[in-house]
Design brief:
Shape: elongated
Bound molecules: heme C
Distance between the termini: 96 Å
Order of helices and strands: HHHHHHH
CATH topology of one domain: Cytochrome Bc1 Complex, Chain D, domain 2
Number of strands: 0
């Protein structure tokens, strides 16, 4: 190839680059993207208000429920709510373990320490901690979030008041 042809090739490549650059600059000055104040699409249940982007909140690895106000907890209501636990748990003294362990006197006991029950390794990992109201709050909110891989296939109690009432009921079993 002659050097004359090389010059033509180089010139055309340069021209193409210059055109691309100029188009970019012109396009940027014509179109001004505006950020939406709120997300245009929200998943069901999300409000888009307060606390910034809802998707970020959902993806946060250290998710925690609201701390509970135990002064407003009612163990009688808790007993009613705890009917959903009866499928897998017993609450009376000396009653047998079912799919889950017997829960008599579980509060302030070590996690995963109920006698005669084989706990998952997920929950046993926390066995040096005790079932305080705070730990129970987190556990009953989302068992899978508290102990990822737990055998307790229960979705959780999303309502703060329900968790407070159930914890008050558990604390009354002494
Ligand atoms: C579908 C069955 C099922 C339901 C419903 C269920 N649980 Fe459980 N629960 C389990 C199983 C299984 C375990 C053992 C978890 C493990 O080893 O990972 C467990 C463990 C527990 C523990 C830990 C016990 C310990 O000694 O460390 C508590 C506390 C508890 N459940 C409370 C509740 C409460 C309160 C409810 C109702 C609001 C409930 N569970 C509903 C199956 C269930």
């Amino acid at each position: 190839m002659s050097s004359f042809e090389w010059n033509k090739i180089i010139a055309s490549v340069l021209t193409a680059m210059i055109i691309a650059m100029v188009t970019g600059i012109v396009a940027q000055s014509i179109v001004h993207p505006e950020k939406l104040e709120k997300a245009a699409y929200l998943p069901p249940g999300a409000t888009g208000e307060a606390g910034g982007a809802p998707t970020e909140a959902a993806a946060a690895p250290e998710e925690k429920p609201q701390p509970l106000d135990m002064s407003k907890a009612d163990p009688k209501k808790g007993e009613q709510i705890a009917k959903v636990c009866l499928q897998c748990h017993t609450f009376g003294k000396g009653e047998p373990n079912k799919i889950g362990p017997n829960l008599f006197d579980v509060t302030e006991e070590n996690i995963a320490s109920a006698p005669g029950y084989t706990f998952s390794s997920a929950l046993s990992a926390d066995k040096d901690k005790k079932w305080t109201a705070d730990e129970l709050n987190e556990w009953l909110w989302k068992p899978q979030s508290f102990a990822h891989g737990t055998k307790m296939t229960f979705a959780g109690l999303p309502k703060e008041q329900d968790r407070a009432d159930v914890i008050a009921y558990l604390q009354s079993l002494k």
